[in-house]
Every structure is written in structure tokens, then in C-alpha cells.
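[job 0412] stage=complex_fold ligand=adenosine monophosphate status=START
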Amino acid sequence: MNILVINCGSSSLKFQLIDAETEKQIAKGLCERIGIEGSRLVYQPAGGEKEETVTPMPDHTKAIELVLNALTNEKTGVVKSLDEIGAVGHRIVHGGEKFASSTIITDEVIEAIKACNDLAPLHNPANLIGIDACKKLMPTTPMVGVFDTAFHQTMPKEAYLYGLPYEYYEKYQVRRYGFHGTSHSYVSKRAAELLGKKYEDLKIIVCHLGNGASISAVKDGKCVDTSMGLTPLEGLIMGTRSGDIDPAIIEFLAHKEKKSIDEIMTVLNKKSGVLGLSDNLSSDFRDLEKSYNAGEDRGLRTIQTFAYRVAKYIGAYTAAMNGVDVICFTAGVGENSPLVRNLACERLGYLGIALDQEKNNKRGEELEVSTPDSKVKVLVVPTNEELAIARETAALVK
Ligand code: AMP
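[job 0412] stage=complex_fold status=DONE, emitting C-alpha cells
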């Protein structure tokens, strides 16, 4: 069965068509600037040429219509008709406490996702628009919602409660939810496979280090803690997000800079992280590594602070699980930066961790980068959220 995986943002839409039996990608692409002048569709069949078409996309329905036309195009399409698309899997950012697993999308499910809009006001409404557009264009094709938060719903209370008045949890469900769940789930399961061990017997720490970054602790096949919180702002230092800070900084800066809370939140989400720390040099680690290698203070302080925070969380999650068997690095930085992996692992000698420098110098490959006698295995596992969504979708539709 072919599964269309859709990841819908407010003005963009990424898609992949995946054969659920062979798990091969058949085509992929994205729509950009939906609802904005200059919108374009990028479409690439597997093994074929990338095509770019600049064409008006006033809304998401038009964008998905163009995607479906591209997939069924006589010359460059990959399926003869829409009947060859067995199901659609939608990435949904926030499932609150309602969704602890993926689910077939029904009218009740749509209402329940809407009820989580307050928790992810930028993302959930966009995800719902994608669902609505697919419903219009493919009314009989089953759809599945795969939630970024679902994998983390197994966290115990002590990991998800904040030290706030309990009534805020009861009234507004203010608690830790965690994100990137599809990636943490995929990578931790893959780690068990690669090591030839039972998933339920391992203590795994997954470091998802991309433009957004989060860490999770997975014990006996269940997530027991994760670094992102009510929103994706908490935890590690990210591309442009601050991660953990003293909450009193918000009021302090609002007074000093004469800014509103909303303006300070924009600083914390868009102008902080490695971009802010490097004095606006870049949010991209390729630029930051150049600066680091040139011995410049802004590259040095930024990458060292980023890696220190990663090591600190690994220490915390080792304590949370009373040990760790395997640490996985994934996503753009985790897969491609030997430097960041080295700087984080250098601080973990007390766990008996040693990296094989030759292996660690490889980029973007699935491999074990620790030495054979390292007490904790360190793996690089490229994430594949689309494949994970396709698997969940196929399993539910069957
Ligand atoms: P993601 O959000 O997972 O797509 O990760 C994107 C980030 O990965 C980019 O912003 C870069 O910081 C980082 N990245 C991608 N390629 C490399 C590379 N070759 N070396 C270092 N960092 C990289």
C-alpha cells in the first residue's frame, strides 16, 4: 500500500509517498509560500529529476491538489490514479493528553485536535487545514494522525509536572508534553535493532539535535523523560530558541529593553539559541563550526555551550533511568557534526564512554561510533520521521 505522508505548516507543506511494504520512498517534495505571492511546488520522483514549478497557491487545498496532480502526472508521476494511494498519514504537532498513540482521523478526532489548538497555536491549526484539504480532495481515503507528543505520554508524573500551583495543571493542563516524539520513537527502536537487543531491555538516551533540539530518556521501551516542555522552547539550546533559562529573565529583560511579554517571547523563540549566542553569526552549525575551527570566540563559546547543555542532560537522564546502555545522536547536527558529538561525549568519561575517532568523523551514516570496549554504546542513527509516520499509518489502516 502507498502512503502519502503530509507535514503541513502555516505556509508550507512537505510530502512523501512511501510504499509501506518495501518502505521505499516513491516521491517527495514540498510546497512553499502557500497563501503568499511567489508560491512554488518542488517535486521529485525517486531516482528522477527535481522539478520546480512557480504557480499560485492561494490555500492548502490548492497546494494539495497540485501535489496530487504531480503524483499522477502522465509523464513524471509515480502512480496512475489516486486509487493507488491507500492512506494519508498526517504529522500533528500537539495531541495534548488525549492522544497517547496515532489514530485514524474521524470527525471526533478532528474536534479533539482542535481542542489542543491552545497548546500549539502556530502548528495545530495548520495541521488541521491539511487534514481538511485532503478530506475534500480524497474523501474516501483513510487518514491517520501521528502526534509529535504521543511517544512521550508514558512519562511518569514526576517527570511531567512542573513546580507550579497544581490547579494550573488541572485547569489548563500546564505540564511537560515533549515533541519530536516520532523521531525519538523511530531512533530508539532502530538502536535496539542495530544492537540486536530487545527494545524493552534497554536504557536509551536519544539526542535529536537539529534546528529544533530535544533529548529523551527511553527505559524498557517507554519514554520516561524528555527535554521539551509545554512548548518546544524548553530544554536544549537550539537554532534560534533559548532552551532552559531562569524564568525571571523574562520580566528582567522586559523592563530593561522596554519590551512586552510577546516581544520577549519572540526573542526567546526566534533570536536566541546558537544564533543569539553567536552574536547573529548563524543558526547553522556549518557556519558555526567554521568560526570554531578558526578559533573565534563566537564560534567557540556557542558550540561549547551547546555541547555542555547536551552533556548535562545526558547526565540527568542517566540518573533518571539509573543507568544508560546506549546514547543515540540524530537529526541535522547529531548526524553530521563529529565535533558536537565529541564535545558532548568528552564530558561523559565517568560513564566509561569512549569514541572511535575514525568512525566518529563520518557524517550522516548509520553506525556505532563508540569503541568496542566503551561501557555505553554511542550510535549515529539518521532519523526518518516520514517512514515512521508511514509505518504507523499502514498499521492502523490495515
Ligand atoms: P534539521 O532541523 O534536523 O534539518 O537540522 C538542520 C541543521 O543541521 C542545520 O541548521 C545545521 O545546523 C545542521 N547541519 C546540517 N548539515 C550539517 C553538517 N554537514 N555539519 C554540521 N551541521 C550540519
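Residues 297-321 form the longest helix (25 residues).
[job 0412] exit 0
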